[in-house]
Amino acid sequence: QVQLVESGGGSVQAGESLRLSCAIFSYTYGFQCMGWVRQAPGKGLEFVSRISDQGTTSYADSVKGRFTISQDNAKTTLYLQMNSLKPEDTATYYCQADFRTDCFSRTVADMVYRGQGTHVTVSS
């Protein structure tokens, strides 16, 4: 059974940084794309960033220039480096993954796998 396990969340002050990690278990074939989404209290899932198997990346306008998505060489861990954090970045962050070849263009609700989330709180 495929598992995505996020870590690295926490409470920080505005302007500080965090790095989220997503470890992949029980999937040896390689995903076509992976990404991060977030959900603030009382709101729906919001796209944050995505990376394709070829290394193509995409970011939400709200995080562009501040967040960086990456993978380790073995593609068993996904990262999200978050710099210059703002209070509006407060949310639960989820890792997503998909094996379908067209997954890079799919909506956040249509990705096959999602982890349990890690919470980020940014105080002003």
Polypeptide structure, described:
With 124 residues, the protein is mainly beta. 0% of the residues lie in helices and 50% in strands. Strands 2, 4, 5, 6, 9, 10 and 11 form a seven-stranded mixed sheet that branches. A hairpin with a 5-residue loop joins strand 4 and strand 5 (45-52). The radius of gyration is 14 Å and the shape is globular. The model has no long low-confidence stretch (mean pLDDT 94).
Structure at a glance:
With 124 residues, the protein is mostly beta strands.
Topology, pairings included?
Blueprint: E1 3-7, E2 10-13, E3 18-25, E4 33-39, E5 45-52, E6 57-59, E7 67-71, E8 77-82, E9 91-98, E10 113-114, E11 118-123
Parallel strand pairs: 2-11
Antiparallel strand pairs: 1-3, 3-8, 4-5, 4-9, 5-6, 7-8, 9-10, 9-11
Which structural category fits the helices and strands? Answer: mainly beta
Radius of gyration: 14 Å
Largest sheet properties: 7 strands, mixed
Gross morphology is: globular
In sequence order, what are the helices and strands, one letter per element?
A: EEEEEEEEEEE
Contiguous helical run count? 0
β-strand amount: over 45%
Q: How much helix, percentage-wise, in residues?
A: under 10%
Average pLDDT works out at 94
How far is the N terminus from the C terminus? 40 Å
Flag low-confidence runs. Answer: none
* Number of DSSP E strands: 11
